[in-house]
Amino acid sequence: MSDPQSQYPVHGAGLGLRRPLVNKLMADPPADVDFMEIAPENWIHVGGALAKKLRFFTERYPFLLHGLSLSIGSPAPLDEQLVRDIRDFMAEHQIRMYSEHLSYCGDDGHLYDLMPIPFTDDAVHYVADRVRRVQDILGQRMALENVSYYAPTDSSMTEKEFLLAVLDEADCDLMLDINNIVVNSINHKYDASDFLRDMPAEKIRYFHLAGHYVEAEDLRIDTHGAAVDDQAWQLLEDAYQLFGPVPTLLERDFNFPPMDELLGEVRQIRKLQQRFTAQAVAHG
Length: 284
What we know:
This protein is of the alpha/beta class.
């Protein structure tokens, strides 16, 4: 690949824009943040003052979408109207990419959680068909995120085998969540570095980084409500060593710390990226 940067929709270090952060970020738009990400379901068809606040940010930062409710693995019919709404919303705000969880969250009703898809060949074909349909409606590629899970419903394949098979058959991209690898590797007793090394570099579009809750030494819960832990920082370094300084977004959904502390984690991402960029330049 002659220009590795060309595969990424954004660059640098990003921050998930959450409504409790909006007014503080508007008052002092951070120069340390290179891009932002929102959940489309929280902003589509929103008008009035909140819509103006979103426009404030989309005029200043590159944006990505990370969906919550497409439910790509659900037995229920694909919500094509949601996909059309997402397509139109992306055009309205010049949003560069859409990603979703490789999971499902509803059938006849909404389950309010991300449920694991059975790791089977049949599920690979089913999900890949639905992803291709989404990409047809969007008129562009989407990315899938490797998700945290706690009780697999069928382990005919490993998590890694299932993820790679879906990415290949659907011909879609990967949004790699570093914290989810840490959480799953602890909960399901596999080697996080091995998982990371087998990810397809050419399909990676950006990373997520977040904190999790330590329920027990062998049980971690993916909460996005804590600071990033040392294991996730180390795995992010390993990922930059393998793939270069891939654009990385910090997720924080609740328990928000003081703004300088939150932005300090974004700055830490930037410092790591700059270090690996400098190393790459030094080695020609």
